[in-house]
Structure to design on (478 residues):
DNA sequence: GTCTATAAGCAGATAGAC
DNA sequence: GTCTATCTGCTTATAGAC
């Protein structure tokens, strides 16, 4: 079995489900179905490990050797599944955008800004809690100039933002929101919620490990929701 | 004044005043004074270029070769002034903390939370505008696990934060602030203001270049101040 | 599909002439 | 103080046996 091989520096060894190591002479007789599932399993495992390494070291700082080592695979296998480091990185970014997009849907065109904004803030906080590494990869990419995300930003994020700007302006006109600059409000929501993922290490150092525990995180989420709603001056239409 | 410094993170290239190449045989006859100023000039120029490269590529992704090239110096000279890449990085982080610290002072123990919080938000926004590369280096360092900043965070930032938490709690007790979680408020201020430096590339892509122009930035600053003050429920004691 | 071995080049850092 | 040349080891990526 590969996990027992002497050639994998064992330090942060990844205990994978099982697939991949099963390579024996029997493989040639395997059905395509089986092969496809090996591919899917190895790919997603590599993607998860890549996300962690890109989060810790940025694109340039990450090495395919380290990613492969974390995945418990030889480096050559990584290049078998992803031809280049950049191709792997793009797949990670694509995955992240899909999650971002799912959270974005919660900011719906409801007539109640309290529900829409509150729901969106909760979804973004939950995403920060559930996938902090992904948030860090995104942050790293933007900090480095967003070279590989121009397409996503311009074709996917920008249209979404513009539709929400219109929505926010309507709420303001209806007196359901204070006269805020819509983009400033959106940036504040992004910045504040993503801070709990991206600046995890700082929060841990300053506020202690407890600050990021499940119960505490939930309380913080409600606190953030309250503060954002107050900042935006949102009120429910029937209140 | 800081604003007039020539060595502020001067984007890319590297047209230095002159020092460095001026090395001729006359050097040996130069006074110590002259040598010291060459050292100071080269050091600060290298620090500025290092800040830019660390911001763009993170610590691991940055190369001393690129930093030296930006500075217009051979790589060996960089190692003459800074023995290791890590030593150079530490100097950059130290410099950044000093700036952070200066801005932190504006959050004074005034009896008026509107003035104290508003002033602090403005100082942080101004820092994001004036030194975005520095903010990016800080962000990168934290995202990567804050390995090299534990000391600064624990010995300098944490005591500051705790004193402000006490202050905020006093304002709340005096009814000058809504009953907010003090740390959540501080994190929101940091996240929102630093977003304008760290996520510059995203803002540029989504809101256009104009969004970061001087006039627009000033308007955004006041918008952010208003929103933070509303989020915290601050009111002046004599109002 | 897996993995060893290796190519070709770039990294951090240093030696030593000037 | 400056700079060319170089050491050592790590980088991405590939070749080719199994």
């Amino acid at each position: 079995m590969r996990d027992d091989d002497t050639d994998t520096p064992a330090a942060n060894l990844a205990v994978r489900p099982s697939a991949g190591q099963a390579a024996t002479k029997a493989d040639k007789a395997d059905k395509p179905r089986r092969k496809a599932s090996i591919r899917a399993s190895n790919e997603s495992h590599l993607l998860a490990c890549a996300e962690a390494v890109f989060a810790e070291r940025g694109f340039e700082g990450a090495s395919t050797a380290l990613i492969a080592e974390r995945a418990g695979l030889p480096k050559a296998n990584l290049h078998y599944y992803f031809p280049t480091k950049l191709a792997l990185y793009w797949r990670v970014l694509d995955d992240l955008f899909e999650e971002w997009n799912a959270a974005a849907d919660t900011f719906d065109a409801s007539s109640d800004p309290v529900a829409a904004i509150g729901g969106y803030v909760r979804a973004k906080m939950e995403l920060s809690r559930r996938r902090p590494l992904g948030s860090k990869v995104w942050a790293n990419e933007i900090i480095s100039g967003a070279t590989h995300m121009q397409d996503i930003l311009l074709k996917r994020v920008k249209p979404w933002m513009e539709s929400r700007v219109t929505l926010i302006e309507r709420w303001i006109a209806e007196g359901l929101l204070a006269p805020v600059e819509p983009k400033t409000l959106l940036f504040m929501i992004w910045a504040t919620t993503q801070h709990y993922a991206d600046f995890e290490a700082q929060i841990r150092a300053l506020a202690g490990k407890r600050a990021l525990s499940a119960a505490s995180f939930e309380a913080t989420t409600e606190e953030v929701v309250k503060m954002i709603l107050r900042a935006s001056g949102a009120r429910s239409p029937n209140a």
